[in-house]
Automatic annotation (TrEMBL), chain A:
Assigned protein family: Belongs to the binding-protein-dependent transport system permease family.
Record-annotated ABC transmembrane type-1 domain positions: 63-253
Entry-linked CDD domains: TM_PBP2 (cd06261)
Name of the protein: Spermidine/putrescine transport system permease protein
Localization of this protein: Cell inner membrane; Cell membrane
SUPFAM superfamilies: MetI-like (SSF161098)
Record has Membrane as a keyword: yes
Topology of this chain in the membrane: Multi-pass membrane protein
Classification lineage: Bacteria, Pseudomonadati, Pseudomonadota, Alphaproteobacteria, Hyphomicrobiales
Main location: membrane
TM annotation in the entry: 67-92, 98-122, 134-152, 187-213, 234-258
InterPro entries: MetI-like (IPR000515), MetI-like_sf (IPR035906)
Keywords: Cell inner membrane, Cell membrane, Membrane, Transmembrane, Transmembrane helix, Transport
Species of origin: Neorhizobium huautlense
From TrEMBL, chain B:
All residue ranges annotated as the ABC transmembrane type-1 domain in the record: 60-266
Origin species: Neorhizobium huautlense
Keyword Lipid biosynthesis found: no
Annotated protein name in UniProt: Spermidine/putrescine transport system permease protein
CDD domains reported in the protein's UniProt record: TM_PBP2
Sequence intervals crossing the membrane: 12-33, 60-83, 95-120, 140-166, 247-270
Subcellular location: Cell membrane
Family named by the database record: Belongs to the binding-protein-dependent transport system permease family. CysTW subfamily.
Record keywords, A-Z: Cell membrane, Membrane, Transmembrane, Transmembrane helix, Transport
InterPro entries: MetI-like, MetI-like_sf
Length: 264, 275
């Protein structure tokens, strides 16, 4: 870019970066300090607390539970949402318009509102599942919708399909076959990106985990909530580990984007 | 798309529509219906209680206050950061987007815990500021603490939403302005901001809704001590002495209306923009 950099804007950027990273740095400092001498500098450094947490069976189970619930929800979301977005894009413009509006659903209807409704829905037949982990799998599916819609739609728009369908019809290849053999593979990067981004979002879900299922099925967020009053060192290790997990997922997502960008 | 309408293909969307009906429409409908039930009979009693109770009124006022302040801060800083990133390389932008994405996902319990390590009674920054005599004491478990906490995810979300919007402003336009001697500040105030004005209004309403619906960060930082709307809803359904699920339904509907009106208005504005 040829436009000159405004010094005030550079300052803003640095100021924001430092401010946003401060809590993470403070947490990390806490997690490796063995004790404090009264000032801001720790008396010694050690990674012992990391070993304690990473080997803690309760932490491992919580991580496993969150991963399984998120995985199942994403599997269901793929099966339900991706075909619908494709169908709306090619054959049902009215539905497509409504889907575009539904993207803001998580903002218009925060989870705290839906949670109140779910308490009622899951307490009586035909969905009498109150308190069971399957409730999380089901309620996480609608949360995945916006990311799937945005990314699958972007991939679909990047394809030039009008000619493809016409050629297919001339050759007697059905639309269904084309969708399965050509369209689906070419929008796969979009689907993968939606999965990775949604996975990070579902790992951070707390309202449903606490209010619909509770402590008997401890997810990663519930584990963190329960351990927040633990010794500062152990709970700061938990937050740091969680931060690293999120960092890893985000890095994976951005690698996906980067790879598709350089390919095209 | 100009394909021959094929009704069979529309069936692909059927499972999705069923899911939407069962997991969004149905629960919302029960919230609405039950909000009109008090003591087993149909009444507007729950709504009357919200309107007359100073306690629930205060929870709305507190939520509105925190949300308005943090939305303003979020949009302002989000905009400044997004503008700054325009003049940076793709690499810097990508790192910033990744950081903002992480920031948005850290909202909740981990954010509250991290802020306690930074600003709590023995927080790293609290100790530094106290030692330097800048502050006497600071209580992070307060309304101020909540505002600071919300700012983190509000700014992160604003950056994520504003960056793509600014991409819509051609760099040629900015370069042309620069050639005729219009400075960066004037360009953004006179040209940039008006061009993306409607989208900024839409983003502002989303940020506001995001703050109004925040629960995890609030509960993990201040417990039930600061009277905000989401904490009230969760207490009313949690089945202890305060339990009154139907009142919770009415509060949830009231919150829904407070969020829906600005979102619908701003989306209509956006639609006008496209024509």
């Amino acid at each position: 870019m040829t436009t000159t950099r405004h010094p005030a804007l550079t300052t803003t950027l640095w100021f924001a970066a430092i401010l946003l990273l401060l809590p993470v740095l403070a947490t990390f400092l806490n997690s490796i300090a063995t004790g404090w001498t009264g000032g801001i500098l720790p008396s010694g450094l050690s990674l012992d607390a990391y070993q304690t947490i990473l080997l803690d069976a309760r932490f491992q189970s919580a991580l496993l539970r969150s991963t399984i619930v998120a995985g199942l929800a994403l599997f269901l979301a793929c099966l339900l949402i991706v075909p619908a977005v494709i169908a709306a894009h090619f054959y049902w413009p009215t539905l497509d318009t409504w889907m575009a509006r539904l993207v803001i659903l998580p903002y218009a209807v925060p989870t705290i509102i839906l949670m109140v409704g779910y308490l009622r829905v899951f307490s009586a037949p035909p969905l009498q599942l109150g308190g069971q982990p399957i409730v999380l799998v089901l309620t996480y599916v609608p949360l995945c919708f916006p990311m799937f819609y945005i990314n699958v739609k972007n991939s679909l728009q990047a394809l030039d399909t009008t000619e493809l369908f016409e050629a297919g019809r001339l050759l007697g290849i059905s639309d269904a076959r084309l969708l399965r053999r050509v369209i689906l593979p070419s929008i796969f990067p979009g689907i993968a990106l939606a999965i990775v981004l949604n996975f990070a979002g579902l790992m951070s879900e707390f309202v449903y985990a606490r209010m619909l299922v509770g402590g008997q099925f401890e997810t990663l967020q519930m584990y963190m909530f329960a351990q927040r009053d633990l010794s500062g060192r152990l709970s700061s290790v938990i937050v740091t580990v969680y931060f690293l997990i999120t960092l890893l997922i985000t890095f994976a997502a951005f690698r996906l984007v980067w790879r598709t960008e350089t390919k095209s | 798309m100009s394909h021959h309408a094929s009704p069979a293909m529309k069936l692909l969307a059927a499972p999705f529509l069923l899911m939407l009906a069962a997991l969004v429409v149905w629960p919302l409908a029960t919230v609405l219906i039950d909000s009109f039930s008090k003591g087993g009979v149909w009444s507007l009693g729950n709504y009357a209680e919200i309107l007359t109770s100073a306690y629930y009124g205060q929870s709305f006022v507190n939520s509105l206050l925190i949300s308005a302040v943090t939305t303003a801060i979020g949009v302002l800083f989000g905009f400044l950061i997004a503008v700054s990133l325009r003049y940076r390389s793709g690499g810097t932008r990508r790192i910033a987007m990744a950081l903002a994405n992480i920031g948005a996902n850290l909202a909740g319990v981990p954010l509250a815990m991290a802020l306690i390590f930074l600003l709590g009674l023995n927080g790293t920054l609290t100790i530094v500021l106290k030692a330097s005599g800048l502050i006497g004491s600071f209580n992070v478990y307060s309304l101020t603490g909540l505002i600071i906490a919300y700012c983190y995810f509000q700014i992160a979300l604003a950056v994520l939403l504003i960056i793509p919007v600014l991409d819509g402003i051609e760099t040629e336009l900015e370069e042309a302005a620069s050639l005729i001697g219009v400075g960066t500040t004037r360009f953004w105030l006179r040209v940039g901001l008006p061009v993306v004005g409607r989208q900024m209004v839409a983003i502002t309403t989303l940020l506001f809704a995001n703050a109004m619906g925040t629960y995890a960060t609030t509960l993990a930082l201040t417990g039930t001590s600061v009277n905000v709307i989401t904490i009230r809803i969760s207490e009313l359904v949690s089945g202890d002495v305060f339990s009154d699920p139907n009142l919770a339904n009415a509060i949830a509907i009231a919150l829904f209306l407070v969020l829906l009106v600005p979102i619908v208005v701003s989306q209509l504005l956006l639609k006008g923009d496209k024509r």
